[in-house]
Design a protein that fits this description.
mainly alpha, 13 helices, 74% helix
Length: 290
């Protein structure tokens, strides 16, 4: 479709160019001038419309992500776009494209672009970190683990990379290593987002290990640090339920629903209230999975 539009515009460009080459009289040149202006205005208008449409597509992506959110624990959000510095070898171009694809949810495309960036600049820490994010979100956990370990070798104080290693270990059910990395991120306390997610993931680790009191402690601390992390309400309710405190669990799910009724996890809290009211129970540790 895009090729067809460009082909049509290119044909019009060639047509005007041929008329300009053949113009002899002032009247013919004036006609070419009017055609050039009209053509420019037409293309400029299309560019503006396409740019607006591109922004609207990003809004569609955000809506998709909300509606497709599942009950599995989410990886940390990417947050603000990083500052990408230009370079003379072209790696920054691929980092920019990789970030854009990553933010749009095209993880395979992001991995390809970031891989090219690292071919051009093998020691680029920014490209390597973003590559690890893309691999992790694509659930290529073994590759992501290797990538983040390279980042930590160069930057031991990179707490976001460290909690991502903890997250991957959680997903792979390597709980001992998950606890080690997440606890270290909490001790470093050099990044608020990393500290928040470290507490949340430790709650999930202890929930999976059926250590419900410890899970309760970490989920409560998560909500103190980040009240908008609604999934912590849902998981705290599970920990309370399996600790035989069903009343507290119901109160937690109600609080999660009231905190954000439009969030997928807020809706999940409401659904869980309906489930237990009908005699059901939340997914047990291991059943829902980390």
């Amino acid at each position: 479709m895009a090729e067809e539009i460009v082909r049509t515009l290119r044909a019009r460009y060639d047509q005007i160019g041929a008329a300009l080459d053949a113009a002899k009289s002032p009247a013919e040149l004036d006609a070419c001038k009017k055609d050039i202006i009209a053509f420019f205005m037409h293309v400029d208008g299309m560019v503006g419309e396409l740019s607006a449409l591109k922004d609207e597509i990003k809004a569609l992506v955000d809506r998709y992500k909300q509606q497709a959110a599942s009950t599995k624990p989410a990886a940390p959000e990417l947050g603000e776009k990083p500052v990408i510095h230009s370079d003379h070898i072209g790696a920054s171009t691929f980092i920019e494209k990789g970030w854009s694809l990553l933010s749009l949810g095209d993880y395979a495309g992001a991995i390809e672009k970031l891989g090219k960036a690292l071919e051009l600049s093998p020691a680029d820490a920014q490209a390597e970190s973003l590559l690890g994010w893309a691999q992790m979100l694509k659930e290529d956990y073994d590759d992501a683990l290797l990538t983040f370990q390279k980042v930590l070798t160069r930057e031991p104080a990179n707490s976001l990379a460290r909690i991502n290693v903890g997250y991957i270990c959680l997903k792979k059910r390597i709980f001992g290593e998950a606890i080690e990395h997440l606890s270290k991120a909490i001790r470093m306390a050099n990044d608020k987002k990393a500290t928040l997610y470290a507490h949340y993931y430790l709650g999930l680790v202890y929930l999976e290990r059926e250590m419900f009191e410890d899970a309760d402690t970490f989920f409560r601390k998560t909500l103190e640090l980040g009240p908008n992390l609604i999934e912590a309400y849902y998981q705290l309710g599970r920990a309370q339920w399996f600790a035989d405190d069903q009343g507290a669990a119901k109160g937690t799910w109600e609080a999660g629903w009231q905190a954000n009724k439009f969030n997928p996890w807020g809706k999940k809290c409401q659904e869980m209230l309906a489930t237990v009211a009908a005699g059901g129970a939340p997914p047990s540790p291991g059943e829902e999975g980390a």
